[in-house]
Design a protein that fits this description.
heterodimer, A: 1134 residues, alpha+beta, Dna-directed Rna Polymerase Ii 140kd Polypeptide, Chain: B, domain 3, Hypothetical Protein Ta0175, Chain: A, domain 2, Dna-directed Rna Polymerase Ii 140kd Polypeptide, Chain: B, Domain 6, 6-stranded mixed β-barrel, 29 helices, B: 338 residues, Gyrase A, domain 2, RNA Polymerase Alpha Subunit, Chain A, domain 2, 6-stranded antiparallel sheet, 4-stranded antiparallel sheet, 18 strands, 33% strand
């Protein structure tokens, strides 16, 4: 009794009161503040910049090192060796070999490429001399903005402003020929890993090997009861046993051991293949393989011809499972790997759970700008060297006065042009992999800040868009937290184009060597030291490092623990992932590039390691994000390791098993979806629609928007930060560069002009600047020089002799023939009065005729514009470049498109005077009236809450938060409204503005953030009575820009046919289109002219009929092809 | 809810909708308009008249008439506003059109009754139909030595903010004699027009004309003019104790008071329903919602006129009445003509 009391006392002394044991872990307030800390060092587009930095500082050196020697067959002494490579800082060539540093903005304005010189140090022979040269320019590398070599990196806001750069601009794109180009993140299947899946013949195991040199695919599949290996260097599938023999595993027992399945009898048919083919030695197997080789497409010089078996051996070494090393023809590692592949196939046959999922994000890698450019650069660099070699071979045998100096032949334009071409067109052609990809780069959309930011996080997958497959398009559970579940386009690219979530990081490559050492020190036996039978022993776990077998261990738990500990202590890179796969009995260690990962708070023994204290330190600036990583409080998990962890979303969910805690749940959404307030209350497609529309919203582009001269730029005159913010909005700085306005809306019906989502807008609001926007367009021209010493010129305005004033077309021109800023230009007026020299008809004639032809740059738009500014500069080729920026101010009108942040778009249906608008007890009349029918089917409850929270924010004078999975609660918001004398439901008493009597219903009204979308009637309005026709068919032209006709299409035609309105059809399809009078000869049935039939030489039986010109054209075109179509005419009444 | 029996026409604010209550006697709604009766019943009570704001009650009038006055004040009473801007130079970052738009929205002090409408936009500006202003300002670096170390923009630069007070009136012809300097110009001196930095410059002539709110909201003499119906709250079931305090919270302050009964009970009574905001928050409480009937008297309008400053609110109302009269007479004239 006594001891029990003592015991209890003792227990409570140590562990505290037992009543508190079951209480959930206290919530860490403000732990979301880690997100801005993360974004501060990682940034939203850090993955692009990181990968480019890795390429420019590390990878390029490796590439040059790997291809560092150019030799020549003509002279065995000749060589060029690259000792170093260096990418400088961006500059422009000013001519005469003088270059000056440049800024991205200068390049944008002057249509230049923002690039830096690539210089190499070389050592080569000139004659018999050995010469070393430093800093030799071999090409220019387009530089990613904000990368380590960019002038913008590590600059303060003030310095950025000096360079005309917006401090909020994320960078991560290139400026090529004046356009901003993004290399999209490419998603692809993981390389060098086994994928077991259902194939053509049944279960198959596939490996795509990829090294710097080669890319090849090896697959093991089962056909009948035998196992085969398929590879594209062999014509036929090869029985696995023969491959094993060729890999110098002669012993059948060892083959079985390497495959390592208990049911050996399954292998008997495969092993029998060997005996059937009478292959018992490695040589015999190689001869067999040699016969199965794919015929070479090109002949090799006779001296180099190898025997087929040697060829096969070489191929086995270099191409088959290329990523598995086989040094000195030691094929053991390949054999083990092959054995494992067969094992996986057999396992996959017995149990479906062994099959892999292609769409699983752990099996995917994202390729970033850096790695794509590195592929490109290596290819070009090889070509460059090959060209040098060819030049050397051609020139060395020649006897010349001066010695052959290779440096003279090292021209920089090959590399420059190839890189610029690739980035500006997006065609990625890698010769050595026979890779041909288009659409890799896209022009950075500068419609709004968000659209630019959204583009930087876009992930493109390689799947065909036309294929109707659901797998790659559907939402994968493993996307959680890595890719935004909402942000994907609708239509054909749905689910294929994705966007990164807020905290996603994409890894760059980490050196393998320390990892190998660490693994070996933690009890991994080297695979080469392990006997075949031990590899698949039940207690052993295989260790993989980046797809290669490293060894086996009997204590995998220790290995993982050691790895995770050293990682959290910072001894190995934090982006290395390690996780066990108990199904495969493997431990996978990855340090390759392109893995998706995100940070988590580590939880130990049911308590998160981060406490209030740490957050306090973070707020005070004592800690930064990296300190959390250094101290082992946070760690990055990739998709695979994430699936080996127990992750709690909130502190209250933590149990003893929990290993990690989410930093903030709203980071599972991306940049665009982050704008939506209360997205967790919306129907999911609505958030997706908003993600698409947020990119079309007009607003602010950047702080430097007034310095830009884009082809098309939309700005709103009075942008506002939304009343209801989200954390993501603050993190992405949307509140500093907003795209929309807070409109007071009333949810009610009004007139009949609000059906189908149309909006009623208050005219007084428009008068006061609501939805007013600026549209900037530019027109530019180049002043070319021609080989015959002539060049384009600009002349002043033509003066009307009678009035002494410039003619109408030239009335806004300045004295120099270019419009002056501030001038109004109307349709067809000239902006730049350029004329070009008439080309002399005789090519090569040197007579410089001083004749010029006018080729003015005219303004073509029915609505007039003002000239904002004019730029006169030169481009890279030193040609004069003229740019004119034109501006239009537009006020909203009927038909302009608006949208709230909940995928609720609508056009203006009616503009109503203020006095006709309903008003409430406070005299407030809404800016916008929205029809309530927009709600029930769309279920955008988030919008309702946004309105309520916005209204409460107005009364309190503060911003409310609508952060995903959080935000201000409706209850609290209602209470705030009540406090200020408003109805708790947000419904107000309104009076009709027309009758002046109270409305029967209470109206839900308050502020909602509205975006003006770029689709405006002014750019689309089109009608025509008569107008231009196409020359060939004489039918009306097509399209608004050509003042085209309005097409009566097939379906409309069908309606008329169905209705039986035949005369209407004749009128629409012929009379109003391309009616034509033709003479037809009744005798021969051919077409005549002027009442004369030329084939019958008579006018006797020629009658005139009307038909569409297109029909006449067909008849004559057929005639031109020696086909006569004869018409038989009958009287209409007969 | 059962209808209330009294003589006044009213609407009852129910939980989900507003219902009409039919009074026993005849009201402005039922009887035909006759001026004798109207004169007898109609009353205007001015509650409050501050500088630019005014509140008055209009009692015994049909809503159509009350609404007409509201509408006329919003969009038919003319004022002067800047309509044309001749920009000689504008090197600031603000675009010409946006600047002109901003200038137009500045309320001007000028009695519109002294001016005529321009019949067409081409008509020449005369002293009778327009006012001319000038805005000429240049931003420069502040060279005062004592403020050299400051990095505040207002110390570093001169004229970095363009305010409405920088607009200068240029009297034309006899305007100088007829109008006083203090009677013409922007009403508020501190409306920010633009922000500038050294090197930026503005030089423009502004022309104000007379117009009405229907053309553009800038001509409207009021920020807003509106009315509301007089609220009337009746407690039909006694509410006491804690519930009484709760009831008090449901209305605007001062609407409900708590009376201490001799018996020690505290019951809620209606004090003054006039300033209730019709928030209807009683309906949150199931026990209270049947204790109160909220209604509004339909022929009692509480007008609020918030003048922008060009005209006094009472003048605006009188103008509106005059316009209505003119419209009526012109209609009658037209009818008589035909």
């Amino acid at each position: 009794m006594n001891s029990e009391v003592m015991n209890e006392k003792f227990v409570s002394e140590i562990f505290g009161d037992s009543k508190f044991y079951h209480q959930p872990v206290k919530e860490i307030e403000e732990k979301w503040k880690l997100v801005p800390a993360f974004l501060k060092i990682k940034g939203l587009v850090k993955q692009h910049i990181d990968s480019f930095n890795y390429f420019i500082n590390v990878d390029i050196k490796k590439i040059v090192e790997a291809n560092d020697k150019v030799t020549c067959d003509a002279d065995p002494l000749f060589y060029v060796r690259y000792t170093n490579v260096h990418v400088g800082t961006p500059d422009v060539d000013e001519g005469f070999n003088i270059s000056k540093p440049t800024t991205p903005h200068e390049c944008r304005l002057r249509d230049m490429t923002y690039s830096a010189p690539i210089s190499v140090d070389i050592e080569y022979t000139r004659g018999t001399q050995r010469v070393a040269k430093k800093g030799l320019l071999i090409g220019r590398m387009p530089i990613m903005l904000r990368s380590s070599n960019c002038v913008l990196s590590n600059k303060s806001e003030f310095e950025l402003a000096k360079m005309n750069e917006c401090p909020l601009d994320p960078g991560g794109y290139f400026v090529v020929k004046g356009t901003e180009k993004v290399i999209l993140i490419q998603e692809q299947l993981m390389k060098n890993r086994m994928i077991v899946e259902e194939g053509k013949y049944g279960v198959q195991c596939q490996v795509v090997s990829s090294t710097h040199e080669k890319k090849s695919r090896t697959s093991i599949f089962v056909k009948g009861n035998k196992y085969f290996m398929g590879h594209n260097v062999f014509t036929d599938p090869i029985p696995v046993s023969i491959i094993f023999k060729a890999l110098n595993i002669i012993n059948d027992q060892e083959i079985c051991e390497l495959i390592g399945i208990p049911e050996v009898q399954k292998l008997i048919p495969t092993l029998e293949e060997c005996h059937n083919a009478k292959i018992y030695t490695q040589d015999a197997a190689l001869v067999y393989l040699g016969n199965k080789l794919l015929a070479k497409r090109y002949a090799v010089s006779a001296s180099k011809v190898k025997t087929p078996s040697d060829e096969a051996r070489d191929l086995l070494m270099t191409t088959v499972l290329a990523h598995v090393p086989a040094e000195g023809y030691n094929f053991r590692l390949k054999a083990i790997y092959l054995g494992l592949m067969v094992k996986r196939v057999i396992e996959g046959q017995t149990d479906k759970k062994f099959l892999d999922d292609r769409d699983y994000y752990g099996n995917k890698r994202l390729e970033l700008a850096g790695s794509l450019i590195s592929l490109m650069f290596e290819d070009i660099f090889k070509r460059f060297n090959w060209d040098l070699k060819a030049i050397a071979e051609k020139n060395i045998p020649k006897i010349r006065a001066s010695q052959f100096d290779i440096v003279k032949y090292m021209r920089s334009d090959l590399i420059t042009n190839c890189l610029v071409f690739a980035i500006s067109t997006g065609n990625w052609t890698i010769k050595r992999f026979r890779m041909e990809r288009s659409g890799v780069t896209q022009v950075l959309s500068r419609l709004s800040y968000i659209s630019a930011l959204g583009m930087m996080t876009r992930v493109d997958s390689q799947f065909e868009k036309t294929r109707k497959v659901s797998g790659p398009r559907s939402l994968q559970p493993s996307q959680w937290g890595m890719l935004c579940p909402s942000d994907t386009p609708e239509g054909e690219a749905c689910g294929l184009v994705k966007n990164l979530a807020l905290m996603t990081h994409i890894t760059t490559e980490v050196d393998e060597y320390p990892l190998i050492r660490l693994a070996k020190n933690s009890g991994v036996q080297d695979i080469n030291m392990v006997a075949s039978f031990a590899i698949h022993s039940p207690s052993a776990y295989l260790i993989f490092l980046n797809g290669n077998i490293l060894g086996i261990t009997n204590n995998y738990k220790k290995l993982i623990k050691v790895f995770r500990l050293t990682r959290s202590k910072g001894y190995i890179s934090g982006y290395v992932s390690i996780y066990p796969n108990h199904l495969h009995k493997c431990v996978y260690i990855s340090s390759d590039s392109g893995r998706l990962c995100r940070p988590y708070i580590i939880v130990r023994n049911g308590y998160p390691l981060i406490t209030e204290k740490h957050i306090y330190e973070l707020e005070k600036g004592i800690r930064v994000f990296e300190d959390f990583l250094q101290d082992g409080l946070l760690e990055f998990l990739d998709v695979n390791e994430e699936n080996d962890s127990y992750i709690a979303c909130y502190e209250r969910d933590i149990t003893m098993q929990t290993t990690h805690l989410e930093i903030a749940t709203f980071t599972l959404l991306g940049v665009c979806a982050g704008l939506v307030p209360y997205p967790h209350h919306n129907q999911s497609p609505r958030n997706t629609y908003q993600c698409a529309m947020g990119k079309q919203a007009m607003g602010t582009i950047g702080y430097n928007q007034k310095n830009r001269m884009d082809t098309l730029l939309y700005n709103i005159v009075y942008p506002q930060a939304p009343m209801v913010k989200t954390k993501s909005i603050e993190l992405t700085h949307f509140d500093k560069l907003p795209a929309g306005q807070n409109a007071t809306i009333a949810v009610m019906s009004y007139s009949g002009y609000d059906i189908e989502d149309a909006l009623i807008v208050n005219k007084a609001s428009i008068d006061r600047g609501f939805g007013r926007c600026l549209v900037y367009k530019n027109s530019k021209c180049l002043m070319k020089r021609y080989p015959n010493q002539t060049f384009d010129r600009i002349q002043g305005p033509t003066i009307d002799l009678t009035t002494g004033q410039p003619i109408f077309k030239h009335s806004s021109l300045d004295g120099d023939g270019i419009v002056s800023p501030g001038e109004l230009v109307t349709n067809r007026q000239v902006l730049i009065n350029k004329s070009i020299p008439k080309m002399s008809s005789v090519p090569g004639s040197t007579t410089t005729s001083m004749e010029y032809r006018e080729q003015p740059v005219a303004y073509r738009n029915d609505e007039p514009s003002y000239v904002e500014k004019v730029l006169i500069s030169t481009n890279e080729e030193d040609t004069t470049l003229l740019k004119v920026l034109l501006r239009q101010t537009r006020r909203p009108e009927i038909g302009d498109k608006f949208s709230s942040r909940h995928g609720q778009k609508g056009v203006v249906g009616l503009v109503v005077e203020q006095e006709d608008m309903p008003f409430n007890e406070y005299g407030i009349c809404p800016d916008i009236i929205m029809n309530p029918h927009g709600y029930p089917s769309r279920m955008t409850v988030g919008k309702l809450i946004e309105l309520l929270a916005g209204k409460a924010g107005l009364t309190e004078g503060k911003f409310h938060y609508g952060t995903a999975f959080g935000g201000s609660k409706v209850e609290d918001v209602s209470e705030e409204l009540v406090k200020h004398g408003f109805n708790y439901q947000g419904k107000d008493f309104f009076y009709s503005g027309i009758t002046g009597e109270p409305l029967e219903a209470y109206i839900y009204s308050g502020p909602v953030y509205y975006q003006k979308l770029k689709h405006m009637v002014q750019d689309k309005i089109h009608a025509r009575g008569r107008g231009p026709r196409a020359v060939l068919t004489r039918q009306p032209t097509e399209g608004r820009s050509r003042d085209g006709g309005l097409r009566l299409g097939e379906m409309e035609r069908d309606c008329l046919i169905g209705y039986g309105a035949s005369m209407m059809l004749v009128e629409r399809l012929m009379v109003s289109s391309d009616q034509c009078e033709v003479d037809v000869c009744n005798k021969c049935g051919r077409l005549g002219y002027c009442g004369w039939c030329n084939s019958c030489k008579t006018s006797a039986e020629v009658s005139s009929i009307t038909m569409p010109y297109a029909c006449k054209l067909l008849l004559t075109e057929l005639q031109a092809m020696n086909i006569t179509a004869r018409l038989t005419l009958n009287h209409y009444c007969e | 809810m059962e209808t209330m029996n009294d003589d006044k026409p009213r609407v009852i604010l129910e939980e989900y909708k507003v219902v009409q209550n039919l009074p026993r006697g005849s009201t402005v709604f039922t009887e035909q308009f006759n001026s004798k009766n109207f004169k007898k019943n109609f009353r205007i009570v001015i509650i409050r008249k501050e500088n630019y704001e005014m509140e008055f009650d209009m009692i015994g009038i049909h809503p159509f008439l009350a609404n007409t006055f509201r509408r006329l004040m919003l969009s038919d009473v003319p004022t002067m506003a800047i309509e044309k801007v001749h920009i000689h130079n504008n090197t600031s970052i603000i675009q010409d059109e946006v600047l002109a738009h901003r200038l137009g929205l500045i309320p001007l002090r000028a009695d519109p009754r002294l001016f005529e409408f321009k019949t067409s936009s081409n008509e020449a500006n005369t002293e009778h139909n327009s006012l001319e202003f000038e805005l000429k300002i240049k931003c420069s670096v502040n060279k005062e030595a004592n403020k050299k170390d400051s990095s505040r923009v207002e110390d570093m630069y001169k004229n970095n903010n363009v305010y409405s007070k920088h607009i200068k009136w240029l009297p034309t012809a006899s305007q100088k004699e007829n109008l006083q300097d203090s009677n013409v110009g922007p009403i508020d001196p501190d409306i920010l027009i633009a922000k500038m930095r050294p090197g930026h410059e503005m030089d423009m002539k502004l022309f104000a004309v007379k117009g009405c709110g229907r053309d553009h909201a800038k001509f409207s003499p009021v920020a807003t003019a509106f009315y509301r119906l007089l609220p009337d709250i009746k407690i039909i079931k006694e509410v006491e104790g804690e519930a009484a305090y709760r009831l008090q919270k449901c209305f605007s302050p001062g609407v409900i008071t708590i009376r201490n009964e001799p018996s020690g009970k505290k019951i809620a009574v209606v004090n003054d329903a006039r300033y209730d905001t019709s928030s209807r928050n009683v309906f949150r409480y199931d026990d209270l919602k049947n204790c109160v009937v909220m209604s509004k008297i339909q022929d009692h309008f509480i007008f609020t006129i918030e003048s922008v400053g060009a005209l006094q609110p009472d003048v605006i109302f009188k103008e509106a009445v005059r316009i209505l009269r003119d419209k009526c007479t012109s209609l009658l004239d037209e009818l008589n003509l035909s």
